[in-house]
């Protein structure tokens, strides 16, 4: 687990993707929103170098389609709701406990199923050889 102080930028996104590739075998599909850091030249160049990595971009202005928004809502409601951290270290520790809970295998799938659009992308990726998004720059 890794936390960042300050804004997350393209180098951290590349570092995250590299971490995922080192720990997940086989074809990897990462679903992202259209934040500029996810569409940067550095990220696109990294994807080009890794054949088994594909990025799927969600439609613009659609947080309700993004499973991470459900995860953040769950963390806010069940982990940090009514919790007053006196230090950033206390907050970081509490969030790490929450992320350990999210890492259970059934919970991420529940969040994906909670966003039907995203669930359809994942299902399509698993069932057939759907059009690879590798190297496709999202529309701005």
Strand fraction band? 5-15%
Average pLDDT works out at: 78
- Helix proportion of residues, in percent? 40-55%
**Which of globular, elongated, flat, extended, rod-shaped describes the shape?**
globular
Total E-strand runs: 2
Number of self-contained structural domains: 2
Distance between the termini: 31 Å
Strand line-up in the sheet with most strands: 1-2
**What is the string of helix and strand elements?**
HEHEHHHH
- Rounded Rg: 16 Å
- Summarize the biggest pleated sheet: 2 strands, parallel
Tell me the quaternary state: single chain
Number of helices: 6
Structural class label: mainly alpha
Query: Can you tell me the residue ranges where pLDDT is under 50 for at least 5 consecutive residues?
Result: 124-140
Protein name: Tc1-like transposase DDE domain-containing protein
GO molecular function: nucleic acid binding
Domain Tc1-like transposase DDE: 3-80
Please describe the structure with a list of short key phrases separated by commas or semicolons.
140 residues; mainly alpha; two-stranded parallel ribbon; 6 helices; 2 strands; RNaseH_sf; Tc1-like_DDE_dom; Tc1-like transposase DDE domain-containing protein
Structure summary:
This protein has 140 residues and is mainly alpha-helical. Helix content is 50%, strand content 7%. It has 2 domains: 1-61 and 117-140, no CATH class; 67-114, no CATH class.
């Amino acid at each position: 687990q890794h936390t960042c102080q300050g804004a997350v930028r393209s180098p951290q996104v590349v570092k995250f993707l590299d971490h995922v590739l080192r720990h997940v075998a086989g074809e990897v599909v990462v679903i992202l929103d259209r934040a500029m850091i996810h569409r940067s030249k550095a990220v696109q160049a990294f994807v080009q170098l890794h054949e088994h990595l594909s990025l799927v971009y969600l439609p613009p202005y659609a947080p309700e389609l993004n499973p991470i928004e459900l995860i953040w809502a769950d963390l806010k409601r069940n982990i940090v709701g009514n919790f007053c951290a006196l230090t950033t270290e206390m907050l970081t520790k509490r969030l790490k406990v929450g992320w350990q809970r999210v890492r259970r295998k059934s919970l991420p799938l529940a969040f994906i199923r909670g966003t039907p659009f995203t669930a359809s992308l994942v299902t399509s990726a698993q069932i057939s050889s759907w059009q690879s998004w590798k190297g496709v720059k999202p529309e701005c």
